[in-house]
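Example 3.2
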Amino acid sequence: MAGNLLYIPYTIFIILAVILISFILASKAGNRAAKHFFMAAVPVVVLIQFYYWNLDFNDWVKSYLFSSSEFVCGYADELEELPIPLPERTVLKGREDFCSPFYITYTDFYDFMSFYAEKLKEMKRNGDVKSYQFMERGSEHLSKGYAVILNSGSSLEIVMRNSEDPGKRLLSIDYEPVH
């Protein structure tokens, strides 16, 4: 199912536009031009509609073309100036204007762990974070990640969990400010 109800009128509009352009081409340039346009337009329209209506395909395409590169939170002053890098092929699943901690990634656990081991080591060396440590939670969905203590004493948990989809994993970044 689609993630947005506006896809319904969008789909209707696109189909009507293709039919209308085909009729205009048929009347102006002949049936052959309309036939060629229709043969080229239908697969493109189907692919675009598949992108919008199939959320798994949408995530897969976004992971290559529009992946998120860093987690930035404008609502927390200390996180506004401290972008948290994200692994390749990571897609935001929440709202961009709300410090959403929910992502889907196509990175495996080994690459995730080595990516953050390197990045957090670099951030600690630069004085951006106070400390970090590996953590693992045993649950229905195995989760591994890092607990990070920022210089202010606030904490971040960067955790990856298994998903029901074989190649896809869930990534969350939870921020706990100092009280």
